[in-house]
Write a structure and sequence with these properties.
single chain, six-stranded antiparallel β-sheet, 6 strands, globular, SUKH-3
């Protein structure tokens, strides 16, 4: 989704739900999942590939990068992504 501009707690940035964009990054998701005790699967990209998005079995959406944060569970997570809400830092 293409969104830009000021958000609630961070700038709104584009995101795309397409796991194919993350082929080769499976280890990153597995390692962060182990760190927080959840199975995180690749979901897509945030900010045109600058960050990755993951999802767990409870429909919680994660920012996955040098740290991992939660946007919350769907549908709240979608609202947080669209409105520019900073993910809650979990590890890293």
């Amino acid at each position: 989704m293409s969104v830009h501009g000021p958000g609630i707690s961070v700038a709104r940035t584009p995101f795309e739900f397409d796991p194919e964009l993350l082929v080769g990054e499976e280890d990153r998701f597995s390692e962060w999942g182990d760190e927080i005790g959840r199975r995180i699967l690749p979901l897509g990209e945030l900010d045109e590939g600058r960050h990755f998005l993951g999802i767990d079995e409870f429909s919680e959406i994660y920012l996955v990068d040098m740290w991992v944060g939660s946007f919350g569970r769907m549908p709240e997570a979608m609202e947080n992504l669209v409105l520019g809400v900073m993910p809650r830092r979990l590890a890293g």
